[in-house]
Predict the structure.
Amino acid sequence: MDGNRRYAKNAGLPLKEGHRAGAESLAKVLTCCYKLGVKDVTVYAFSIENFNRPQSEIDTIFQLLKSRLAYIAYEDSPVKQFHLSIKIVGNRTLIPSDVLADLEQIEESTAGNTAHNLFIAFPYTSRDDIVHSVTEITHKVKSDELKVSEITAETIENNFYYRGEASKVDILVRTSGHTRLSDYMLWQCHQDSVISYSNTLWPNFKFYHTWWTIFKWSYYKTLILEDAETMQIKRITDKEINERYKEPILSLSHPPFASVTKVT
Ligand code: FPP
């Protein structure tokens, strides 16, 4: 959600208004994503690096996070209709206890929803997640719960903060003109992930930008699948797609708004 501070500065507003506008943008983008058939979204709400910011800004972000998630989870918000499960993926030991208690209650109250996931990366860095996974695995090996010979890529994924729920990213969106990766989902970006850069500041990132990002991805995905078919390369198995996308919209029949039938 890059660009909140610059948005506030450009508009001559207090910094917290930038984050507030960013939180509003998030609700709209999520609605758009879920309507277009995206099952899982992760939002980078707070990097461990962000603890270096002034305490007043950290407090503003934490308060916003609590109030916006409560709104998303409990109130009559548009997101509620998508049967959303909200999950925190991040280092919980760094979260103040009052904030953590609220967030865990939100997690618990939405745990039964299975249609869509909203993962909140908070406080998160990918390197911290990798250290966390390795530490968990080491404990399991030491307590004979796991043998070294049994460790696979899946073991590492299952011990991330995601607990194996989001192993592969289709699209990583970076807003506001930044092109660095900021220690975000380094493992989850794989051979078919697409990184989509946008110069738009996050609070200005709206339906059009979301739709266009997904449209472009769908189009190129269609070409890749067709290519794979032509070259008889089976890069993604039907089983894998069906497991990943329970909804028919993103199964092998391409999303109707971006399907191509013939490449010339
Ligand atoms: C990055 O922009 C944004 C953040 C570090 C905080 C984002 C958090 C919220 C909007 C709180 C609400 C969150 C949820 C999940 C409901 P920046 O501050 O780095 O801005 P800049 O790129 O202009 O410097």
Q: What stands out?
A: Residues 1-6, 19, 22-23, 26, 43, 45-46, 50, 61, 64-65, 68-69, 120, 176 surround farnesyl diphosphate (CB under 6 Å). Confidence is low (pLDDT under 50) at residues 248-256, 259-264. The two ends are 38 Å apart (CA to CA).
